[in-house]
Each structure stands twice: as C-alpha cells, then as structure tokens.
Amino acid sequence: MSTERIAPFGKALCAMVTPFAADGSLDLAAARELAARLVTEGCDGLVLNGTTGESPTTTDTEKADLIRAVREAVGTGPAIVSGVGTSDTRHTVELARQAEEAGADGLLVVTPYYSRPPQAAVEAHFLRVADAAGVPVMLYDIPGRTGTRIEPETMIRLAAHPRIVAVKDCAYDLLGSAKVIARTSLAYYSGSEELNLPLYAVGGSGFVSTVANVAPRAMRAVLDAFDKGDTVEAGRLNALTLPLVERAMASGLPGTVTMKALLGMPVREPLQPADREAVDGLRAAYEELVQSYT
C-alpha cells in the first residue's frame, strides 16, 4: 500500500440533491446552477443519482439527463460520480454503461438491497458491474439502508479488481474501515459527516457529504486544516459543523429532505417536505455555522 493519500475523485465530494420543478419534473437549469456553485465553493467532485439524489424515484432517462446537464455546467475538471446501484445486477450494468456514455467519471454502486444476498453473491455482483464498466467504481457500503454489509474481508478481495478503486463508507465501523485501508489501496470516502475527520485521520481519502449541498466550504475546511498539519484547528472547525450535521442527518428526516428544506426545493413522494419546526431548527443551525466563518 502507498504511503500517499489516495483520492481518485478528489477529497471533497458533494452528494448532490436532484432539483425538481414545482410540478415534480426534473429541473435541469437548477441542477446546472447548483453544480456550478458547489464546485466554485470547494467541491472537487459531485456524486449524482445517489440516495441524496432521490435515485429510487428518478427514471433511467432522468439519471442520464442529469449527468449530461451537470457535465455541461462544470466542465471536464471536477469529477462526476453517478449512482447506478439497484437490487438487480443486470439493471445495474445497464445503468453503469448509460452513466459512462452520459459523461460520468466514476460509478457509485450500492450493495443490492432488500434481497440481502450473502457475501459471495455481493462480491459477484460488484465484480460483474466492474467487469462491464469502463470507468472506476466506488463501492457504497450502507447496511443501515440495504440490510447487507460489505464485510471487510469481502472488501479486501474486491480491491484486487483494477476498476474497483474507492468506497463510500456508511458502515459505522471505524475499526473495519481502518483494517481495509491498511491492507488495500482503496480510497475510503466518509459518507457519514460525523466521521469525516476520524476516517481521514486513519488514512481515508475524503468525504461524500450531503451537508455539503449547503455548506461546502465549511465541510472542506476541516480536511484542509488537517492536511496543513493543524489537527487542533481541524478539530475546532469540525466542532463548528456538528450542530448542522446533527440537525440535518440525525433528526429522523432523510438528508435529502433536510437539504432541500434549506435550499427551498421540493422532494418527490414518498418523501414529504420538512415541517416548520424542523425547517426553523435547520435554518438556525445553518446561520450559526455561516456566522462562525464571517
């Protein structure tokens, strides 16, 4: 394993929401505007069509249209990673090829959900997708949603595939993640904001952040301080983000709902917008974070 930090998509990635118009249709103009702002404010890359992007309720055509629109908006520099994972291996392969054709630089592939396949089947699924892909693959380990963990030993075996290069880590197992980091060259990206700094400190590559939709500079500043060797400042900056992180990600509402509440964007059913009390709390936490940087 290299002693240098591996970050194939950069270190600060935003799990971007998918903007919809008032009538529920895909709002590509708003997507272009949001994507351009996020890159300007410090995001190295954007993860589209993920959980935060409401991928369960967007069509295959909408997913491809979103990739093309965002690529047009941000140019060729920032990385675009597209979620393609489904519970069906064949459909996932189709989405992977479609995303690549639309201009994605990488693919986010979640563990097949609901059917809860055993580890051998999980491994075979990822290998099948990686074999069919022509761009790098980021595995998405989020057992709280899928019902199935990508076990560390499975991850270590998958790391041998030349196109499996990264992990979005939402397993809440820092020990397991640290073991895989130590034994492979997989780039580990935190998908849980409260673990961004701890995972980075044990060799992680960065984050894929939902909260970065509204606070990209603040989320990135934590890792920038760490990279400068100022771990005390990194800890201080990390503490400043925690009230908003807690409101946004641990309030019982999906991150998509809380981010869109702050952005003033509608969600698609079955999701429902945040109520007034939740919105007020989110805005207060957001304003507190903004004021700490002014």
Task: Note the gap between the termini.
Answer: 41 Å
Q: What would the principal axes of the Cα set say about the shape?
A: globular
Number of strands: 8
Question: What is the overall pLDDT average?
Answer: 96
GO molecular function: 4-hydroxy-tetrahydrodipicolinate synthase activity
Family: Belongs to the DapA family.
InterPro entries: Aldolase_TIM (IPR013785), DapA (IPR005263), DapA-like (IPR002220), Schiff_base-form_aldolases_AS (IPR020625), Schiff_base-form_aldolases_CS (IPR020624)
Organism: Streptomyces solicathayae
Your description of this structure?
It is a single chain. This protein has about 290 residues and is an alpha/beta fold. It has twelve helices and eight strands. An eight-stranded parallel beta barrel has the order 1-2-3-4-5-6-7-8, surrounded by five helices. β6, α7 and β7 form a beta-alpha-beta unit. α3 (about 90-100) runs parallel beside α4 and α10 (about 230-250) runs antiparallel to α12 (about 275-290). It starts with 11 loop residues before the first strand and ends with a helix. The model has no long low-confidence stretch (mean pLDDT about 95).
